[in-house]
Amino acid sequence: MAARTSLNLKKSLIFLLLCLTAFFFVFPLLWMFSTSLKGPSEVMSLDLKLIPDKPLWSNYVDIFQKYPIWTHLRNTVFITVMNILGKLVSCTLAAYGFAKFRAPGKNVLFVVLIATLMVPWSVTMVPLFILFKQLGWHNTFLPLWVPSFFGDAFSIFLLRQFIMGIPNELQEAARIDGAGVLRILWSVFLPNLKPALAVVALFSFFYTWNDFLGPLIYLTDPDKATLQLGIQSLRTQFKVEWQYMMAYSVVSLVPCLVVFFFGQKQIVQGIALTGLKS
Questions:
Q1: pTM value?
Q2: How far apart are CA 50 and CA 44, in angstroms?
Q3: Measured at the alpha carbon of residue 228, what is the angle toward residues 80 and 48, in degrees to the nearest 5?
């Protein structure tokens, strides 16, 4: 009986600790939503309140009327969709080659690929900018989605590990039936790759949707701005309308929350089922 009581106490303490930790993570989101419903005077008031005295839902109407949020949303959706398609196509093909093909130097190339994960984006930022400007891609969407069609080291690694967990007997059986390389990939491996592909798509969505530095560097036309640039545009030299900025941020955050809510199962399943074979 004492042991059972001690176990229940430990579970209660762990649950309480998890609730406190969750609160610290959720509180900034609650404060952002609360600020989006306040007026200018209440935002700057020293009397901090999580619940506004009079919630101003009109702030959300105002941002759609005063700012080109629909244009920013359309641009962000286009860039995000192209990045997801690019990574799914290129990373799947590269991972399939690394996992199931025999070629001299394949392992060396794979090590070089993984080594690129240690190179921060800030190191390649200037050379890439010069390259894309020489190509005439500056102030276009091309630098923001074309590189995704050349693969991503982490996604290739994730898919490669998953493919290596699929038995070779399935590939050999399809080859005996006369299936070619792409047919085997399409009919044998892709149906088994759905959890891993979902993880790649979701990670690509979150990264691209919330990307600020990339659009800031390559886009100068306000009509081509993304949601993150739109949020930054509310911050001027002499004035910041915090209630509108927070409302804009909430609108930008909602798709991420929806995608995560419906995709969290695929994320956990995809990572859990990924093998660690070499």
A1: 0.85
A2: 13
A3: 135
